[in-house]
Fold:
Amino acid sequence: MVIHYQALLDRMAISDMPETAQYRMDTEKIARYRIKMAMDHPEDPDMVEDLCQCGQVEELVEQAKDEMTVLDMYLQTRMWELVADQEEIEVEYN
Structure:
């Protein structure tokens, strides 16, 4: 789990995404929190799951992998520029 979340942080650190991009701030905050919980409780996965409140450790790993895919897409399309260009974002609800 730690390896995957650290990979996310490392990928963002070497990117040209501004540190002020909301996606980066949110993703870094989540990744750092989950890394800290895993490091603080290395022998207690149940505690990590309770503290993260987003599923089992295996699911947290999958979330990190999925987020890496999103991050790559975000970096490739430079989405932070698209968001910055719009004053108000319209959200479509299904």
